[in-house]
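thought: user wants a sequence for this fold. calling inverse folding tool.
action: design(structure=
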């Protein structure tokens, strides 16, 4: 009898614990929640009885659960109400293996009436948009340049390709030229959209318009440990995302920790594709100055900006395109993150508006951020832009070409930051707007360099591997290191000759008129050598054709670059080291091959051969060696 009571009491205790765990949002076993176009949100959500919307699955998902989304088009914005509790107990949203899942911020519009030429018109009641109408919502904010006209967050798409927004309706009524245009106008009751559809009846095609601000973005900050994997995410009415405001992207992390965004196709964001940015407050878009941004940083510290609470995101193996501000943006919220293996192209190509936040990747506060193995091309502005607080940053093994402005822009950082094994092939390679504490190692610079000057803005530097501010300092030129790089034609390190701070240079090669600095002892200069650089884009990747000479290894012995060799960045008084504090040894090349420890070859390729070479420098998505969680 006594034994029976013990068993009964134990059962009651286990049941009570189970109830408590469920009430706390914890369960002993993870669950899968299935979503399919054939489902219903009133169903259980298992494989046999799937849900209809991803948001319904998000409402059910608890830490450790997976949301499996099956093939189809989902016209919704996912606002996850909770995240995981750790890297091992994250909430995973993923497309079912081998199935194409599209999540879009647009809706199909029918009922178009022809006006004239190839211009058609649709009139929609404002109720169609609910509480957010992108054709009333203007793009605006700090550091935004409108070019003297109005821009909206709406867009119009024909069979997946967007039209460009016209400044006035008269422009849409004209015959179609090089581009197809749209114009929108909202009154008290209706929204009218005019659009050009050359040679197409839009009522017999797929015509969509933006209706949602984002596609996957939590309204609340602090939704941690989310994975977003394998989706086609597209068509969002995103706002301008300056560093001083909440940064809302087509997909975004919203001031959180530990997201993984991987293996997605992300396209057609009115402003930004992926945001790793800050929260919003009453100072949004009211802080356009260096002093005001310093106050933004101070408020962020008061709102939990720390290694323990923010960042540590992984953004890998995505294809990001057709975003008119940036592919990836992060102000403060990207700290301690890794951005690897992404293809980012056709960013800011319409160029209808301007601003100080436009690049393939634009990060403010890249503390201990690694940007490695990305392919960035056809940006209408910069390829990579690191602005303020680039400390512990590593920019390694990236391929950049056909960008309008510099492949790399580093602005008012105090370092230490490391730029190694990159291939910079655009006409303009580097813009160093008086950053200090940089180390440029084993890169190929095929374009111009714009270096030097003085910037009087006081910008922060931090304690090692921390967001805690150690001080503010202005920005004199110098305190940079250049080791074992290749410079071609327009590269001129002589701009450092008048630098206020010391500069260290050794082992560099200067070809086809590229010029060394007086700071380098015995540089290898070959003005008659033309490497004949040519980029060949192919369906299976990118090939670089280049002529190199193995004799460069014999003509000068070069050092293996290490933390000890690089010394300390002067202003923060910190060593060049990895985020975990371990030292650097630049002992592998762009391809990951081991370097000659006694005499590494200059540039990003170790022992590449001699003469004209054809090197496959991009093979699509690079595999990241981390285990997927």
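)
observation: tool returned 629 residues.
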């Amino acid at each position: 009898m006594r034994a029976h009571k013990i068993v009964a009491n134990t059962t009651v205790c286990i049941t009570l614990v189970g109830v408590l765990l469920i009430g706390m949002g914890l369960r002993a076993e993870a669950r899968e929640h299935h979503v399919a176009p054939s489902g219903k949100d009133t169903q259980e959500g298992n494989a046999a009885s799937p849900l209809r919307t991803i948001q319904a699955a998000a409402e059910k998902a608890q830490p450790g659960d997976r949301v499996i989304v099956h093939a189809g088009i989902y016209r919704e914005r996912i606002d996850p109400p909770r995240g995981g509790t750790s890297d091992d107990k994250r909430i995973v949203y993923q497309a079912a293996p081998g199935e194409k899942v599209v999540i879009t911020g647009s809706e199909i519009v029918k009922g178009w009436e022809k006006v004239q030429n190839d211009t058609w018109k649709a009139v929609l009641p404002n109720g169609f948009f609910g509480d957010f109408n992108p054709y009333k919502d203007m793009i605006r904010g700090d550091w935004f340049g409108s070019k003297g006209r109005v821009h909206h967050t709406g867009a119009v798409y024909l069979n997946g390709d967007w039209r460009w927004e016209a400044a006035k309706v008269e422009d849409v009524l004209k015959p179609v030229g090089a581009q197809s245009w749209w114009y929108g106008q909202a009154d008290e009751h209706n929204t009218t959209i005019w659009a050009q559809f050359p040679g197409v009846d839009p009522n017999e095609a797929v015509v969509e318009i933006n209706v949602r601000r984002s596609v996957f973005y939590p309204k609340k900050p602090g939704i941690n440990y989310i994975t977003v994997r394998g989706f086609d995410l597209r068509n969002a009415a995103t706002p301008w995302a300056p560093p001083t405001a909440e940064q809302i992207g087509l997909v975004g992390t919203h001031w959180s920790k530990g997201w993984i965004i991987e293996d997605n196709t992300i396209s057609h964001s009115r402003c930004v594709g992926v945001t790793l940015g800050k929260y919003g407050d009453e100072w949004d878009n009211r802080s356009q100055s260096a002093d005001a941004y310093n106050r933004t940083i101070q408020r962020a510290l008061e709102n939990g900006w720390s290694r323990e609470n923010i960042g540590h995101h992984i953004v890998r193996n995505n294809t990001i395109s057709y975003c008119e501000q940036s592919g990836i943006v992060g102000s403060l919220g990207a700290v301690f993150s890794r951005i690897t293996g992404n293809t980012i192209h056709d960013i800011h190509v319409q160029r209808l508006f301007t601003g100080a936040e436009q690049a393939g990747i634009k990060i403010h506060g890249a503390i201990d951020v690694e940007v490695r193995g990305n392919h960035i091309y056809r940006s209408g502005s910069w390829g990579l832009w690191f602005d303020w607080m680039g400390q512990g940053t590593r920019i390694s093994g990236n391929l950049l070409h056909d960008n309008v402005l510099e492949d790399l822009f580093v602005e008012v950082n105090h370092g230490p930051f490391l730029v190694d094994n990159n291939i910079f092939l655009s006409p303009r390679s580097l813009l160093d707007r008086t950053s200090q504490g940089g180390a440029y190692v084993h890169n190929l610079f095929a374009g111009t360099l714009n270096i030097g000057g003085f910037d009087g803005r006081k910008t922060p530097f931090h304690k090692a591997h921390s967001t805690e501010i150690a001080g503010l300092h202005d920005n004199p030129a110098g305190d940079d290191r250049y080791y074992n790089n290749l410079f071609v034609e327009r590269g001129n390190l002589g701009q450092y000759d008048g630098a206020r701070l010391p500069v260290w240079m050794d082992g560099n090669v200067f070809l086809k008129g590229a010029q060394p600095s007086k700071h380098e002892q015995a540089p290898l200069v070959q003005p008659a050598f033309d490497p004949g650089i040519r980029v060949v884009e192919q369906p299976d990747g990118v090939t670089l054709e280049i002529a190199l000479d193995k004799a460069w290894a014999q003509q000068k012995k070069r050092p293996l670059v290490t933390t000890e060799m690089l010394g300390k960045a002067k202003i923060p008084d910190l060593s060049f080291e990895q985020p975990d504090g371990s030292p650097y040894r630049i002992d592998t090349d762009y391809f990951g091959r081991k370097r000659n420890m006694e005499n590494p070859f200059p540039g990003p390729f170790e022992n590449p051969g001699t003469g004209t070479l054809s090197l496959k420098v991009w093979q699509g998505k690079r595999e990241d060696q981390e285990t997927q969680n």
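thought: summarizing for user.
answer: Here is the designed sequence. Residues 2-23 form the longest helix (22 residues).
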